[in-house]
Input
Amino acid sequence: MNFYKNTLTNMNKAAKLMDLDQETLDTLSHPQKTLMVTLPVRMDDGHMEYFEAYRVQHSELRGPFKGGIRYFPNVDLNEIKALATEMTFKCAVAGIPYGGGKGGVCCNAKEMSEGELERLTRKYVQAVYQIIGPNHDIPAPDMYTTPQMMAWFMDEYSRLVNQYSPGVVTGKPIEVGGSLGRGTATAQGGAYILEEYMKRHNMEIEGVKVIVQGFGNAGSYAAEILHGMGFTIIGVSDSKGGVYNDDGMDPFHIMKSKKEKGSVQNYDEGTNCTNEELIEKSCDILVLAAMENQVTEENMKNIKTKIILELANGPTTAEADEYLSKQGVVVIPDILANSGGVTVSYFEWLQNQQAYYWPEEEVQTKLKRVMIESLVRILDFQNKHKCTMRQAAYISAFDRLDKTKKLRGSGAHLRCKDYYK
Ligand code: NAD
Output
């Protein structure tokens, strides 16, 4: 199923359950603004390469558009629309004062040099700088975009508007206005949710076996944090394949080995397997931290886990979600499970606005509070509507979005006539 249709299906199901005002649903079923551009970039060998790029501004009902930029070969408009829509719901789930947006560039970042990536990033900023800004639209990293790229982004934007503007982008390195705790925030937020969920259901951590799909920012930190909490990591994977050991593996050692070998595969204390095989192995918790459409109608019957923690966006399709819920598998949905990333992005932006930086304990205390409050609110809605956790998460977000829309009035999500120039 296409990712955007999947997102609309999730929205429609929740809207029906809560009897949502049709106009609120219709408004949120259309992104406010979509920008598509071609970026000409001079490559190291002297030739000019042309990259398709996007920025989708989905909704600014609850605050400035917010959402990452991904550099990925198959990026297309549908995917970015889906991700931008999810951001609106994710920010509303977390109760942070942002709307939703997302960006993407169709490129193979893994095969580009540092100089090419810098020129591409600066070109992207030149294309979007008039529609973004610290109080308007604030990008961040996503797949194959890094803190270094966010530093180039901030530098280029500041140059173009002739004003030092660290708050235009989050996920920056500490030295250029980043926040302590941002690098690990997505994984840490997911770990806080998992811990609280298990505590409320009297589940022990000891002996619980975990498989993590995706060993990038979200997945590798998740494996390390969960390992540190006492979970047993029995499998991990990256784009090249997986590695498995039912007795458990140390993710810090796997990371060291990945740096030497270029993949998690061929790790000394594990057995290689394909990505498809890895997510179908028996475990207690399956952390999906790679990309969308990983658990689908095709493999849902082979999934053998008790809990899925969605650190990636859209990794489980609507059909698979429904099937797994009926089988008693708890799916902790993306818009809750990975909202720690945008929450600490919000903290970073607040620190940039104040030019005053917080110690890590303060970041962690505030992050944990937001994550647990979001979970409790969703569990209350789940109890009230007797639905899946995903549907309850969408209901939690719709509840806030609908109230904001009604208070702001009928022109709520339209900026001004200049906006459409
Ligand atoms: P990343 O680029 O740091 O890592 C992606 C990882 O996935 C890499 O290890 C890559 O090898 C692996 N991968 C790619 N294709 C794969 C496949 N088919 N099977 C298994 N592994 C595969 O990206 P990230 O920032 O960790 O993002 C991962 C997911 O988490 C994305 O869906 C992203 O939207 C979501 N997410 C990230 C953040 C964040 O703060 N980084 C926040 C919220 C959501």
In short: The radius of gyration is 21 Å. The pocket of nicotinamide-adenine-dinucleotide is lined by residues 141-144, 186, 213-219, 237-239, 275, 289-291, 311-313, 338, 341 (CB under 6 Å).
